Amino acid sequence: MNEKCEAEDSPNRDSQQIVSDDDEIDYSSKPEFYDPKVDEKEELWARKQRGGRTSDAVLSCPACFTTLCLDCQRHEKYVTQYRAMFVVNCRINDEEVSQPGSNRKRNRRGSRTEADSTAQTFKRVCCSVCSTDVGVIDEEEVYHFFNAIPSEA
């Protein structure tokens, strides 16, 4: 049985010919989908979308890498969180509403008292392509991203 396998793999067989990948590539013509100026074109498009504003990052979905936001601000305290007003490829989940934290503050003696302000209501925001949760939107329609991949703006 081993003799049969060795005979099939022998380099002397005329029916099999090994060809390297370089031999199959035709370098005389330019690649069909190559554009040497694509980076400059995309940078101009992003500037036009921002309307002259600068951004701290471009945010992408962590699951499918779809662009979520071109113009955002990094959170002052939590450096992995961002906020934005203009987003793309995001869907608001109206059914699920959450109110983070308690609406109470501690007084000087350490006992809890009711805060003057009302608790803010948030709705979940997910990627419109793959439905991954990427953040929340508040009552003032500001998006808060806490599950997104930032890249250089």
SSE order and pairing:
Layout lengths: L1 H7 L12 H4 L13 H13 L7 E3 L6 E3 L3 E2 L7 E3 L5 E9 L5 E3 L5 E3 L7 E6 L5 E5 L5 E3 L3 E3 L2
Antiparallel strand pairs: 1-2, 1-11, 3-4, 4-10, 5-8, 6-7, 8-9, 9-10
Describe the structure.
A hairpin with a 5-residue loop joins β8 and β9. Residues 102-106 have low confidence and may be disordered. The longest helix is centred in the N-terminal third of the chain and has 13 residues, at 38-50. This protein starts with a helix and ends with a strand. It has 153 residues and is of the alpha+beta class. It has helices at 2-8, 21-24, 38-50; strands at 58-60, 67-69, 73-74, 82-84, 90-98, 104-106, 112-114, 122-127, 133-137, 143-145, 149-151. Helices cover 16% and strands 28% of the residues. The protein has three helices and eleven strands. The protein has a six-stranded antiparallel β-sheet with strand order 3-4-10-9-8-5, with no helix packed on it. Strands 2-1-11 form a three-stranded antiparallel β-sheet, with no helix packed on it. A two-stranded antiparallel ribbon has the order 6-7.
